[in-house]
Amino acid sequence: MPGSANRPVGRRAFVLGATAAAGTALTGTATGTAHAAGFGWSDDGSNYVVDTGAQLVFKVSKSTGDLTSLVYRGTEYQGYGGMNSHIESGLGASTVSIRQSGSTILVSVTHGTLRHYYAARSGENNVYLWTNKADTSVSATRYIVRVKKGAFLNDEPDSYTYAPTTIEASDVFRKSDGQTRSKHYSKRRVMDYDHIGWSAGGVGLWMVRSNHEKASGGPFYRSLLRHQSADGGGLYEILYYGQNQTEDQRFGLQGPYVIAFTDGGAPSSALFPGTLTTPWADSLGIAGYVPASGRGKVAGVGISGRNTAYPYTVGLANAAAQYWGPARASDGFFSIPGVLPGTYTLTVYKGELAVYTTSVSVSAGGTTTLNTIAIPSSNDPSNASAIWRIGDWNGTPGGFKNADLMTYAHPSDVRAASWTGNVVIGDGETAAFPCYLWKDVNSGILVYFRLTAAQAAAAHTLRIGVTTAYANGRPQVTVNDTWTSAIPSPPTQPNTRSLTNGSYRGNNHTFMYNVPASAWKTDPSQYNVLRIDVVSGSGTTGFLSAGTAVDAIDLLA
Hints:
The protein is mostly beta strands. Helix content is 4%, strand content 39%.
């Protein structure tokens, strides 16, 4: 039963709720006559009041569809600053209805073309939510659970309770010790988390994410997940996040995502995307809902041509939906269930770098089985013979200076190593090279390297791979002050902040520079000097000047 591990272990929930759990929830049906003690709903005039029978009582406004109360074990957790929990910043006037179907209570909210739902199951301390955004006529890009001041305290990167100094926009802060905080600093990609929340005093409050099939950005996308300030905290399910976005918005039903209470531990894995099943919701009439029987699966027997030092991920995407799953380390086997019917682009990623694509079609109730996918050697840029290489081609700045820190801190953070400093090939070059380059911070970085006489007698291709850019920042190179490349055209990249709000994820792009033999030093004992400048006519100053994130740099043999 989804959420059964979250159920309080007290006598009321265990004894009086046992009949409903065994007779209804475990069978996955949405009908039944026995319920946990207290299970049901009432109308207080302004709100529908839902008691799950598991020490969780919540209220939904009859006029707006806001979640106005969230009481667990007699303690109110909902609300800060006089605000409710809701879609976006609140929908306003809406049509709200409620009905009970056996062991399920469903609250339906209609606001223009948008449909939103809250569901409660007898004996569970969970609230299941769905949101169907049909078009752009209604602003709905998130659901936020607003949590009362003092209920949970932390000093994690996404908390700014103790960071009073604003250093960028109105959402990046610095503590007195020089560490930085922002709600953007979640550390996690979408594929890295199932739930987000807090635990204190024997109570855990969590947001369990949906499968994100109607979200955008893919498995490696990063967005804000929670925040905490002096006024309270927020837990988010992001329906569409515009920061550093690489895809168009998708429309349709998203969910379920789950507000889950526990006795302090993590929520039940039965609620996680990929394991949660909701046959009890099949007949509830949720707009856009597609049951398991209306979905298919894609499976691959293996992937050859992999670099086993890296994890591989398989993604499916079209304009309507997205999915992903890991490839097994031993042989590359993968299985992606619960896919809506349609034709998808299947992409194989080495780390976060796309190294193979094909097209697959999925039908309801069917399994699309693929024979072993063979990744051509030329598809992985790491396979090209190089005189030297800084980093490796995996679609991330991993291994470069400050790379790990930048997913949860501002570049000005006291913990960041100096963004300047030159690099010598053969002397820890990857760890010495900064993960980000900015026009106003460290443009003009120098890379020193030697060539043999034979190497210096030939032209070579220099490659610089990037993962995103801010304000059209891109690299122009100069060799030995004798040859300078043309200014490359900017590739398509997101047009919002990225490098300063915890994300290097944009569109991977490789810049190619054909360096003539005349540019090299002919004396093998002398260092050649490569200068990399960031060029752009956009951006402002400092860390908001034009910049780019580096994947790998190499000089081909």
